[in-house]
Design brief:
The protein is 23% helix and 12% strand. By secondary structure, the protein is α+β, with helices and mostly antiparallel strands.
Length: 97
């Protein structure tokens, strides 16, 4: 099995904004190794990330009996509220002299 860790992204996409990342692995996945994925996950630069092991699923998650689990995980990830620590900077006030 090939180690994907050296190919982990080390830069940010877009205009300096970190990209939220979801990695999903089937419990019985014989292709994507757990340790390799955990190493890859650890190297992702954004703290806004999630690693999920899907119970009862192998590698082809959308073609499994438990495929609804995949949709539930995706829906949950994409409907999360924004983190509270993300704030917009207030414009600097100009002093009236």
């Amino acid at each position: 099995m090939a180690d994907v860790t050296p190919r982990a992204p080390t830069s940010r996409f877009g205009a300096g904004e970190p990209v939220p990342t979801l990695i999903m692995r089937g419990e019985f996945d014989g292709i994507a190794g757990f340790d390799d994925l955990m190493n890859f996950f650890a190297r992702l630069p954004n703290p806004d990330k999630q690693f999920t092991v899907m119970p009862g699923i192998s590698h082809a998650s959308f073609q499994q009996k438990n495929y609804l689990t995949v949709y539930q995980i995706l829906r949950s990830f994409f409907s999360r509220p924004d983190p509270v620590y993300k704030t917009t900077a207030l414009p600097a006030r100009r002093s009236s002299a």
